[in-house]
TrEMBL record:
SUPFAM superfamilies membership: 4Fe-4S ferredoxins
Name listed for the protein in its UniProt record: Ferredoxin
MF (Gene Ontology): 4 iron, 4 sulfur cluster binding; electron transfer activity; iron ion binding
Function: Ferredoxins are iron-sulfur proteins that transfer electrons in a wide variety of metabolic reactions.
Keywords: 4Fe-4S, Electron transport, Iron, Iron-sulfur, Metal-binding, Transport
Obligatory cofactor(s): [4Fe-4S] cluster
Residue intervals of the 4Fe-4S ferredoxin-type domain: 3-31
Sequence intervals crossing the membrane: none
């Protein structure tokens, strides 16, 4: 089963990198924090690369 990513919004610094890189997966919410709105909007490999690029490493896989 595909892994599902989520953003730890307590740690997100609103840099927009994830939403800019994978706009089909991540978006910035009304509070200016990133969220996953379509966990299947990109391959796991692409999501992993964005996780690794997040400057505060606050994107994680569930379980
Ligand atoms: S890359 Fe990380 S810090 Fe930047 S907006 Fe996305 S979740 Fe937040």
């Amino acid at each position: 089963m595909a892994r599902i990513a989520y953003v730890d919004q307590d740690a997100c610094i609103s840099c927009n990198l994830c939403a800019d890189t994978l706009p089909d997966v991540f978006r910035m919410n009304d509070a200016g924090l990133a969220e996953v709105y379509d966990p299947r909007g990109a391959s796991e490999e692409a999501i992993q690369e964005t996780m690794d690029a997040c400057p505060v490493a606050c994107i994680h896989w569930k379980s």
